[in-house]
């Protein structure tokens, strides 16, 4: 047989195998959805047949609001419903009546950690990463972060004022200028957080800040891509490729931070000088306490630190952006920014920290615009599965969650739920949400940070940064109102504020 005959034959076989694999992948949604009980309701419709299953799944790639719509039509009546999912996993959203049951299930039945792996896609992007050890480290470090809020406030305030001066212009300059809101808040909030994490020298190092931001954006994008857009049969392959730029930036950050960690380890071991009060100190101290006889692996600490600290900052920036978009697009006659400014000035002059109107305004923006349209995610890990309170049996591997946007816009929980009321949580609020409610407080009706034992551990620090940032910006600057509230984007399950909004701002006397 000649080479000219072999090549077409081999090419034909490769094409045939490719087509078979492609067909199996395209049939995956239907195979997955067939595992759910016939009594389960679907939104927007039941996927009868493989083509219909594939069609409904592809629609979810375009930023569908199926979870919110399904909540209104089904969950409000106490019933769970299933959604088609771009990852081809069967996903079931529970009604509010099932939240207590969901939170009471042990980890070996409904796993938060496994769902967390699904959401962040780390097993695919970094297969050798020890996620469980990482989760324990997150809890410990963020405990230190919360406990040291008061000790870091001076540094936080100093950096916020410095970054605002650079991003928005001198506070006393009353000439109007046009800025991109997302860009200036990114500059201000990132600088403030890096100051608390690493100290003043690194927080104002342009090269380091660039590396941190690039790592954060690349990693966040790859996580969303692999976790929410890639069908599960392709996740291992796509994850390996998508993880390459993440590992590249990990290497650059390890090189940049290695001397800082070496200095901090020596400082803590010799105890000759008191170490700085920052996140590097806390993470090194924890590593030394957990393994006193072993050498600390700086590269492993840097990798964990990047995931603990950098990625949540992007979430904090988005939260702050939602707040300012809501304030600036509200009817000017309400003068909401002026009300918050006066509260901030009173708090500063009296040296008191409570700012209930600011807390409420932040909380209201989180209610209307949570980070994700689905919260309280769990994966069924018990064999062969679990039976819901409604009687339906879900097989092992099924995703569970609650439609957070639906809960937050349910008139049974909040009167006029689609209306922006920044002081909704001051005075008489919705149910237990009465005067003095704090931003990080969670409940079955407020899921922006999750709820229960797996609520976001960094929410207290994040809320504090937001309050101080709002105080600094509003006391030193004023903004022209926006004509209307720009629309958010929905990418998979993630709600993203518009990134191209221009606002006019000037300093105050």
From TrEMBL:
Which keywords does UniProt give here? Heme, Iron, Membrane, Metal-binding, Monooxygenase, Oxidoreductase, Transmembrane, Transmembrane helix
Molecular function via GO: heme binding; iron ion binding; monooxygenase activity; oxidoreductase activity, acting on paired donors, with incorporation or reduction of molecular oxygen
Q: Which residues cross the membrane?
A: 14-36
**Annotated GO biological process:** secondary metabolic process
Cofactor(s) the protein needs: heme
> Which residues hold heme?
456
CDD domains on file: CYP503A1-like
Family, as annotated: Belongs to the cytochrome P450 family.
Q: What is this protein called?
A: Cytochrome P450
**Which species does the entry assign this protein to?**
Aspergillus coremiiformis
Please name the taxonomic classification of the source: Eukaryota, Fungi, Dikarya, Ascomycota, Pezizomycotina
């Amino acid at each position: 047989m000649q080479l000219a005959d072999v090549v077409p034959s081999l090419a034909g076989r490769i094409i045939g195998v490719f087509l078979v694999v492609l067909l199996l992948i395209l049939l995956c949604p239907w195979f997955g959805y067939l595992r759910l009980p016939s009594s389960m309701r679907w939104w927007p419709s039941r996927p009868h047949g493989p083509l219909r299953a594939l069609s409904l799944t592809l629609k979810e790639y375009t930023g569908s609001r199926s979870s919110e719509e399904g909540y209104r039509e089904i969950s409000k009546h106490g019933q769970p419903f299933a959604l088609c999912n771009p990852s081809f996993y069967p996903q079931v959203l529970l009604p509010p009546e099932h939240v207590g049951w969901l939170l009471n299930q042990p980890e070996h039945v409904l796993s938060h950690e496994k769902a967390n792996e699904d959401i962040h896609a780390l097993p695919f992007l970094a297969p050798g990463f020890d996620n469980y050890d990482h989760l324990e480290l997150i809890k410990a470090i963020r405990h230190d972060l919360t406990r040291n809020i008061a000790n870091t406030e001076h540094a936080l305030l100093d950096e916020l004022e410095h970054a605002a001066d650079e991003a928005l212009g001198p506070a006393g300059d009353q000439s109007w200028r046009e800025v991109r809101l997302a860009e200036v808040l990114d500059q201000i909030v990132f600088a403030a957080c890096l100051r608390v994490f690493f100290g003043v020298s690194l927080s104002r190092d342009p090269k380091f800040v660039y590396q941190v931001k690039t790592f954060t954006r690349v990693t966040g994008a790859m996580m969303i891509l692999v976790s929410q857009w890639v069908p599960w049969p392709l996740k291992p392959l796509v994850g390996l490729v998508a993880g390459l730029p993440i590992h590249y930036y990990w290497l650059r950050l390890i090189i940049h931070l290695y001397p800082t960690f070496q200095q901090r380890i020596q400082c803590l071991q010799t105890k000759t000088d008191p170490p700085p009060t920052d996140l590097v100190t806390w993470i090194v101290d924890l590593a030394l306490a957990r393994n006193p006889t072993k050498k600390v692996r700086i590269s492993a600490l840097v990798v964990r630190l990047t995931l603990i600290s950098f990625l949540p900052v992007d979430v904090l920036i988005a939260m702050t952006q939602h707040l300012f978009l809501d304030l600036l697009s509200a009817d000017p006659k309400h003068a909401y920014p002026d009300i918050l400014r006066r509260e901030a000035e009173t708090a500063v002059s009296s040296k008191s920290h409570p700012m209930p109107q600011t807390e409420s305004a932040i909380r209201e923006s989180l209610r209307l615009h949570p980070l994700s349209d689905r919260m309280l995610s769990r994966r069924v890990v018990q064999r062969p599965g679990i039976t819901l309170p409604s009687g339906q049996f879900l097989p092992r591997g099924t995703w569970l969650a609650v439609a957070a946007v639906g809960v937050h816009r349910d008139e049974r929980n909040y009167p006029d739920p689609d209306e922006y009321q920044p002081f909704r949580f001051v005075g008489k609020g919705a149910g237990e949400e009465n005067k003095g409610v704090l931003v990080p407080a969670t409940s079955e009706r407020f899921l922006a940070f999750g709820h229960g034992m797996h609520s976001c551990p960094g929410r207290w620090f994040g809320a504090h940064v937001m309050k101080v940032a709002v105080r600094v910006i509003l006391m030193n600057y004023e903004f022209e109102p926006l004509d209307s509230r720009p629309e958010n984007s929905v990418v998979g399950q993630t709600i993203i504020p518009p990134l191209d909004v221009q606002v006019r701002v000037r300093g105050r006397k």
